[in-house]
Amino acid sequence: MSVFSPRALLRRQVYMPWAAIPPGEMVELAGRGSTYVTDTPGPHPDSPTIVLLHAVGCTGLLTWYPAIKPLSRRFRVVTMDQRWHGRGIQSEEFSLRDCADDVAALIDTLGLRDVIVAGYSMGSIIAQRVWRQHPDKIEGLVLCATTDRFRSTGLERAFHQGMEVAMLGTRGFSRSRIAVRTARTAAKALDLGPSDIHDWAMREFNSTSPWAVGQAVAALGRHHSRPWLDRIDVPTAVVVTLRDKVLPPDNQIAIARRIPGATIHDIDAGHAACVLQAETFVPALVEAAVTVNARRRDLRRA
């Protein structure tokens, strides 16, 4: 009789594309804390930069590892672990505002130029806020599997209100044993060989505690960018996941239509397309990023 193994089940049931995992390091953001960053050079020293922001419950690498090499043929590619995720900053509280400020601090710390910010799901919301809070630091946006708010239906309102109440009493535990154990687990993550991609993915996934995910989801429930989307004044592309059961595709398309000049790059894929349908997602992502970069250069020449 075989013993149930989550690892064996993952290998049998979940397709994980193999791609080289770039090395990274802890980077200190002045006055904010340290986070794990990968910095993959582009084809030229003056290549534009794309900063990749990950989905909730993931890490920078877990969301984006299939896309890094294809993007690096045209861009300098930077990933970071966001607050309370992976090896990200362990702060007293979690807020989307702080996450956006962390991105701006990373841009300053690394001296990044010609910056496009791309985000997936939660990362796309933080990308919106980076423009809102630091419009002078970025020149383009790529929003993937995105939304402008989470309380658009009665069911969503009930879920997020319940989550907010449930998490309210635990906000003070960010320095608890849970958070410390999470940080220590994350620090053990290693660059593994191609035969170990599932093990590596499980380590990355387990480096963020369910408690931290709950706090992040509660914060996401308070997001509402609709009133200012039409003021976004940098080239923007929206990658729409047409089979998304988490963030409705119609809402994603509506966001693109509210942002002046935004292009739509739709794919026949679900919410986890960044990894589980990478063969479909990555070409659309590259197309979106190249489109934004071309428009960015045109604006500079105008």
Report on this model:
This protein has a single domain (15-301), classed as Rossmann fold (3-Layer(aba) Sandwich). The chain contains eleven helices and eight strands. The chain has helices at 6-13, 60-72, 96-110, 122-133, 154-168, 177-187, 197-206, 210-220, 249-258, 273-276, 278-301, and strands at residues 24-29, 33-40, 49-53, 76-80, 115-120, 140-144, 236-241, 263-267. It is globular and about 50 Å long. It starts with 5 loop residues before the first helix and ends with a helix.
Query: CATH superfamily, called what?
Result: Alpha/Beta hydrolase fold, catalytic domain
Q: Strand-residue fraction? A: 15-25%
CATH architecture: 3-Layer(aba) Sandwich
Largest sheet: 8 strands, mixed
Strand order of the largest sheet: 1-2-4-3-5-6-7-8
Give me the number of helical elements: 11
Q: What is the terminal-to-terminal distance?
A: 70 Å
> Which class of secondary structure composition applies to the elements?
alpha/beta
Query: What is the chain-wise order of helices and strands?
Result: HEEEHEHEHEHHHHEHEHH
pLDDT average, as an integer? 87
Rg computed from alpha carbons, rounded to a whole number of angstroms? 18 Å
Domain tally = 1
